[in-house]
Design goal:
The chain is mainly α. It is 80% helix and 0% strand. Helix 2 packs antiparallel against helix 3.
């Protein structure tokens, strides 16, 4: 099983379906450079839309995880694909200004959480510990590929018909993902674990230092990762503006560049999860957390750097920022009993994506406070340094892990 994960048709179907489900996840980030100008939004308002999505997503993850414990992960996963498909269509056809986009993008976040954490529970139910990091890695890699495809499709549609066509096109594609996932999960058992035995949730937190450290590390990880994902397209567009590119052209090129970052992120998820199977969770988490913190400190100051250098550094940044995600998820499944895993993932998701919801607004607030020009390093540099808080925190909590074996 360990050497043949990529041959598992069930896992590959889940991954392909999720790629389609996430097709509209990054459409707002891809269109942000245009929308900010057309809708005359401040940086804080622009960040609030991304934050609204993340707040809805964090609540959805928490609720879906808790429901997985009580009603089974497969059932919640399938229901979420249906609601996600319907909400994507509504967003695509009706989000047309700041208020409707804020409302419907937040609603979209609420609908999508059930195809993430219940999926991790499904991975834990299907795969043994020896290859679970690799399986979770493929699962999370499909998320990154979905983001990349979302950015590529959004960039093409923006160039052809503006943000309206991008919203509609990416709103339709999740319907294909819902169909693929429903077919893949038809024969998958819906397991409801016995909750009558074992520690309750609060007892787990009190007695398990590793659980606390992994949850705190995930919160810090989300602060850095989700914040930089939300603002990197606008940052690249600002960099391109220095070379005289038009706003739509800048948005299109930035979308393609960030899509490449997410493709690299998919490689990071699949490889770092497997690497942690070999070297241990703690070692991989520590190295990736420290690297992400350093890159957050320096990335924003390079807005005027030549595009090849900036994109190369962005790809490395994207690799290390997402690389610890499958490791954190695999590790939490190993230190929490199956009948409490959903509840723990619920709280972890609420904390992590709650932090990820605040991060884009904190970044935008720094931009507004230091505004001396859209392309000034003295504006973008301090803003990106906000994300280093997460990188350093993730490193600290990784160092506090006490793993009973090399995993």
């Amino acid at each position: 099983m360990k050497k043949q994960l990529w041959r598992d048709s069930w896992l590959m179907a889940i991954c392909i379906g999720r790629i389609f489900m996430y097709m509209n996840y990054m459409v707002y980030a891809a269109c942000l450079p245009i929308l900010k100008s057309e809708w005359e939004m401040s940086a804080t308002q622009a960040g609030s839309i991304a934050s609204g999505f993340m707040i809805g997503y964090s609540v959805s993850l928490a609720v879906a995880s808790w429901l997985s414990d009580h009603f089974g992960a497969r059932r919640i996963f399938v229901l979420s694909t249906i609601t996600g498909m319907a909400t994507a269509l509504v967003f695509g056809f009706f989000a047309r200004d700041y208020l409707t986009t804020l409302l419907l993008y937040s609603l979209l976040g609420i609908a999508q959480g059930g195809i993430y954490t219940p999926g991790i529970v499904l991975m834990a139910e299907r795969y043994p510990v020896a290859c679970r990091g690799g399986a979770v890695g493929w699962f999370i890699a499909s998320t990154s590929l979905g983001y990349a495809c979302s950015l590529v499709v959004s960039g093409i549609l923006v160039a052809v018909g503006g943000h309206v066509l991008a919203f509609i096109g990416t709103g339709i594609l999740p319907s294909a993902g819902a169909l693929i996932l429903w077919i893949a999960l038809r024969s998958t058992p819906n397991i409801i674990h016995d909750r009558s035995n074992g520690l309750n949730f609060m007892a787990v937190l009190r007695n398990e230092r590793n659980v606390r450290s992994l949850m705190a590390g995930y919160t810090c990880h989300c602060w850095e990762l989700l914040g930089m994902w939300a603002w990197t397209p606008a940052f690249l567009a600002a960099s391109l503006a220095l070379s005289g590119a038009a706003s739509i052209q800048s948005a299109e090129i930035a979308a393609y560049c960030v899509a490449a970052m997410h493709i690299v992120g998919a490689v990071a998820s699949s490889t770092m999860g497997h690497l942690s199977d070999l070297l241990g969770r703690r070692a991989v988490l520590t190295g990736l957390g420290a690297a992400g913190a350093i890159l957050s400190l320096i990335f924003g100051w390079l807005v005027a750097a030549p595009l090849p250098i900036l994109v190369g550094l962005m790809l490395i940044y994207g690799f290390v920022a997402i690389g610890d995600s499958p490791v954190l998820s695999a590790a939490i499944t190993e230190v929490v009993a199956p009948n409490r895993l959903g509840s723990v993932l619920a709280v972890r998701s609420l904390l992590g994506f709650g932090a990820g919801a605040i991060a884009p607004m904190a970044f935008g607030a720094v931009l507004d406070y230091l505004r001396v020009g859209d392309s000034a390093a003295s504006t973008w540099g301090p803003a990106f340094m906000v994300f280093a808080i997460g990188g350093f925190g993730a490193t600290w909590f990784a160092l506090r892990l006490r793993m009973s074996d090399k995993k």
